[in-house]
Amino acid sequence: MATIRDVAQRAGVGVATVSRVLSENGYVKEETRQKVLEAIQELNYTPNEIARNLYYKRTGIVAVIIPQISHPFFAEFVDKVVVELFSYNYKAMICNTWSDGSYELQYFDMLKRNMVDGIICGTHSITNEEYFNIDRPIVALDHTFGKAIPCVSVNHKEGGRLAAMELIEAGCKNVLQFRGSSKTGSPALLRHDVFEQIIKEHGIGYHEILTDINDVSEASADKATYEFINNYSDVDGIFGTDIIVMSAMKRAHEKGIDIPGQLKVVGYDGTEMSRLASPGLTTICQPIGDLAKESVKIMMDLINGKDVDTNEVHLSVSLHRDKSTAH
Amino acid sequence: MATIRDVAQRAGVGVATVSRVLSENGYVKEETRQKVLEAIQELNYTPNEIARNLYYKRTGIVAVIIPQISHPFFAEFVDKVVVELFSYNYKAMICNTWSDGSYELQYFDMLKRNMVDGIICGTHSITNEEYFNIDRPIVALDHTFGKAIPCVSVNHKEGGRLAAMELIEAGCKNVLQFRGSSKTGSPALLRHDVFEQIIKEHGIGYHEILTDINDVSEASADKATYEFINNYSDVDGIFGTDIIVMSAMKRAHEKGIDIPGQLKVVGYDGTEMSRLASPGLTTICQPIGDLAKESVKIMMDLINGKDVDTNEVHLSVSLHRDKSTAH
Predict the structure, then answer these.
(1) What CATH number has the domain spanning A156-287+319-325?
(2) How distant is the Cα of A47 from the closest Cα of chain B, in angstroms?
(3) Which of A168, A222, B39, B148 has its CA 20 to 30 Å from the CA of residue B325?
(4) Could you give the CA distance from residue A244 to residue A263 in angstroms, rounded to a whole number?
(5) Contact between residue A279 and residue A259 where contact means Cβ atoms under 8 Å apart
(6) Mean pLDDT across chain B, nearest whole number?
(7) Structure confidence at residue B180 (pLDDT)
(8) Which residues in chain A have Cβ-Cβ distances shorter than 8 Å to B112?
(9) Strands A282-285 and A91-96, sheet pairing
């Protein structure tokens, strides 16, 4: 394989000149530039990307840390992040944590060792202090670190309100919420408080089943909906993530409970997958594409050393109304 | 930030000695090694990964090219690939092509420029010749290149047979297949021929709707199932990918068609998402974890210069029987 030295020799110039042509940096006479470009073509020379990155102190890679890529919300988020990064000539490295903080630490170590230029972090199993030790570009999805690290999130309170009002308007008298919990806290959890408050204010029966928000596995959804169908089959309305309520809908179907006749259902996330539910699922949609766009925009500003507004970004949610809450 | 020179100075040794300690390569007196390690700790020195990779001519990254990460089959495949790569201390870079060959070529260019050590390729929109021009590690998922490039696939013929037999045993008399098509060919398409052949051999009515296998978008599934519900609502059995048949089930539900009473349904892929269908979906399961394991194993052998058996690897499929074909 041809090296930069071969190119220089063929073009009859020094290595530094070839380097200037490649980087489009510094003055090179047009005639010389042409000679170098011809030599590059003749020798089929491709510059070594690693060496180039060493020179620019850039890898062109942003790591995206998530609990599990096969979870529909994270799959869609990453899909859109890849699109956005591509437009900046950046690539995405995928880092699953399987909700285990020790993986998260390993990935952060990667950032310290310059394997990636920044991290978009969609899961948080470690303490804030461990984040603050890293003086490199980090953008957090749905996690508040105060002023230290920019956070991109949606207006989850409004999401909780929309869900509660939808079940109330559909005539529910006894509802159950699948409630996410987390040791490290997340603005996403705010929807649960608002949902509970509004339901109770309306004098409606309220129950909840707890689930770990970092554990997005099928087994975890299965466990929660097993508890629902065995202990709460008398509720007439449920609210939870798309995955959990779709699992609950399957169990209701097996038990001969009619949706929406006997049970009204509202999901959360609005993933593409939720469009495949039968009957059609009413769900609170997060603007996943915009979350990705905003996260990548802030990341690029951080990488390029620009000033970044570290106030939390709150994007709007919306209600997608379908058969599962018809009345 | 501390450099290798700072470490050398603090430890009172030469840079080459520090380098030997870091790479665990070459003899260093134990006493000296301790001094170096102490200096590393005192200065909180982390070696520059880019420089290290330049030295070893490795990036520690494998690119995974897929049409779209948010498609459940590819999301699960990538999820498992990330797990497998992790066990080899490798990371995955995600490359979406959105079924556009020009993206594929850009990603291959990345391999040529040493940005990644290899490519696991799960989509094929470009010609075989373009692949053969690349003398670097490539593993293909579901695409045959003859002896040049190893291919990992399942026994799709058996998948087609199992699906046909399931609908026949369920008593179907008039079935429809959502048939994938592709310009570049794929062993995955073999299931369609076998399915059609067995159905016809049994004197059962046969219809098909064509879909582009590289276009895994929701819109594409929507279009196909729209045609189904409008032109073929008299069929009593359907076979297609999990996504397509779940979309068809939703349309059938909206039209008041009972599943499995009036319509039997068999999916293909066996993704986790298919477990959320109501009623429960009978589907042909690809062993997605094993596909990932096998792909990564071959990739690692290629990267390490080992001899690789380029005969196609055919893993077994299995039938998951559920409510959608009950009779």
Answers:
(1) 3.40.50.2300
(2) 6
(3) A222
(4) 15
(5) yes
(6) 87
(7) 87
(8) 46
(9) unpaired
The CATH H-level (homologous superfamily) assignment of domain A61-154+290-315 is: Response regulator (3.40.50.2300)
Which of the residues B70, B110, B114, B259 would you substitute to probe the A interface, choosing the one with the greatest number of A C-beta atoms within 10 Å? B70
> For residue B24, is pLDDT > 70?
no
pLDDT confidence of residue B131: 65
Band of pLDDT at residue B267, cut at 50, 70 and 90? very high
A238 bridge partner residues: A176, A265
- CA quadruple A147, A151, A155, A160: dihedral, nearest 10: -100
Residue A190, min C-alpha distance to chain B (Å): 27
Query: What's the ipTM?
Result: 0.79
Mutation to test the A interface, candidates B48, B69, B98, B291, most A Cβ within 10 Å: B69
Residue B126 identity: I
What is d(CA B207, CA B200) in angstroms, rounded to the nearest whole number? 10
Other CB atoms within 10 A of residue B128 CB: 15
Sign of CA dihedral A99, A102, A103, A107: positive
Residues of chain A with pLDDT under 50: none
Q: Which amino acid, residue B1?
A: M
Tokens of A56: 């620019």
B273 and A278: CB-CB below 8 Å?
Answer: no
Chain B closest-CA separation from residue A77 CA (Å) = 8
Could you tell me the CATH superfamily of domain B61-153+290-314? Response regulator (3.40.50.2300)
Spell out the CATH class of B4-56: mainly alpha
Q: What is the 3-state secondary structure (H, E, C) of chain B?
A: CCCHHHHHHHHCCCHHHHHHHHHCCCCCCHHHHHHHHHHHHHHCCCCCHHHHHHHHCCCCEEEEEECCCCCHHHHHHHHHHHHHHHHCCCEEEEEECCCCHHHHHHHHHHHHCCCCCEEEECCCCCCHHHHHCCCCCEEEECCCECECCCEEEECHHHHHHHHHHHHHHCCCCEEEEEEEECCCCCHHHHHHHHHHHHHHHCCCEEEEEEEECCCCCHHHHHHHHHHHHHHCCCCCEEECCHHHHHHHHHHHHHCCCCCCCCCEEEEEECCHHHHHCCCCCEEEECCHHHHHHHHHHHHHHHHCCCCCCCCCEEECCEEECCHHHCC
Mean pLDDT comparison of A255-264, B47-56, B63-72, highest-scoring range: A255-264
Contact between chains at A72 and B277 (C-beta distance less than 8 A): no
CB contact under 8 A, B276 and A250: yes
Show Cβ contacts of residue B285 under 8 Å, excluding neighbours closer than 6 positions: B269, B270, B317, B318, B319, B320
Confidence (pLDDT) at A43: 80
Burial class of residue A101, CB neighbours in 10 A (0-12, 13-18, 19+): middle
Distance between B76 CA and the closest CA of chain A, angstroms? 5
Chain-chain contact of A76 with B68 (C-beta, under 8 angstroms): no
Contacts of B109 in chain A (CB under 8 A): 46
Tokens describing residue B93: 């870079």
Domain ranges, ordered by start, for chain B: 4-56, 61-153+290-314, 156-287+319-325
| CA–CA distance, A252 with B170 (Å, rounded to integer) | 24
Per the CB < 8 Å rule, is B277 touching A280? no
Residue B122 CA: distances (Å) to CA of A308, B160, B184, B244: 38, 20, 13, 19
Give the number of A-B residue pairs with CB atoms closer than 8 Å: 154
